[in-house]
Amino acid sequence: MRKYLVVGLSYLAVIAWGCLPVLSNRTGVAVAKSDRVASAVQTTQARADKTSTPSSKRLKIEIEVTSPGDLLVKEGQTVAANQPIADRQSERSTLSAQLQETKLAIEKLKAAPQVDPLPPAGTKALTTPPPQSAYTEERAQITAAAAKLQDLERKYTLAQTAAQATLPETEKVRGSRIAIVQAQEKINRQQQKIDALKTVEESDEAVKDHELTKLRELNRTLIEAQTKLEQDLAAEGIAKASRSSQLADARFEITEAQRGLQLAKSRLVTAAEKHKQSEFDYQTKVAERDDRVQRTELERVKLQQTTQLQQHDRDYQLAQLTLKHNQIQKQLETIGVVRTPHQGTIRRVKLVSQHGHLLRYEVALVYTPTAPKPARLSSQQWQVEN
């Protein structure tokens, strides 16, 4: 259209220029008007040259994206044929994830086990309580425990009597102490004898040495007696500890035997009470069985109603998920990669409008008419201006 407009204006300019001599004789106004017409023609021609050449065409492509980042081209960019210019990858990924999630939810819902109704409650036979017994085993245990306690008490009495007797080790300690006293007395007498010899001026040295040697032997005898006393005291302590330990063990055995006797008596009482309790439990179980049968039947009816409601809810959820799955599938089918049908230059990228989260852009592509036939654009609109 612009080309035809330029040609028409050119013809008008030529006619006006031919009529200029005639009009100039009448008034100068016509000349001024013709100059303005010629100027307008030149301006229009210049604008037409700036927008397109006679051998180029412009293609307007309307694109809907969710964010400016989905646009893959910018103004002034040269593009090849079938080159992507917009891709809603983020939205496609989100919808794909939602589709997979919905698909898994459908499969999980289909695979969920269904609860079958309970069968009618049956009556279970009850065991009768055991008959009254003579408790022979419990009474025999009491007799054995009493005899054991009596025997231990007799042994403890004998051990106490034996503990009052003097230990052999004690006699040895007494003998060692007497030996020490005697050795000390001998040493004292020998020392006095040596001191007396020292007062005698004409005493023989050999006699003095003999007496000193005898004193040293008495000292060694005293040391040996003291060592033996220590050993006898240690042995006496061990013997006393052993005797005390034996008495303590005997007392412990008596205590354990008393506990065993009390335990045997408790078992007899427990056995009698257990028999009474079993009779009471039998009567209670009969009443509980009748009540349980009634409650089980009520629960079966309630479970059957609940199962029907769950089945209805499952069918409803399955229908909702299937509908959602189909809707997402349709949305994915409408979202495709927008590609250029021709090789050319992006002249303009303009935001036209916004509807919710969708942004509508208009992309102007300038291309030559020798380019291949435009391919069909998925879910987009494009217009061609001559």
From TrEMBL:
Keywords: Coiled coil. It comes from the Bacteria. The keyword Coiled coil applies. Residues 92-235 form a coiled coil. The keyword Coiled coil applies. This is Membrane fusion protein biotin-lipoyl like domain-containing protein. It comes from Chamaesiphon polymorphus CCALA 037.
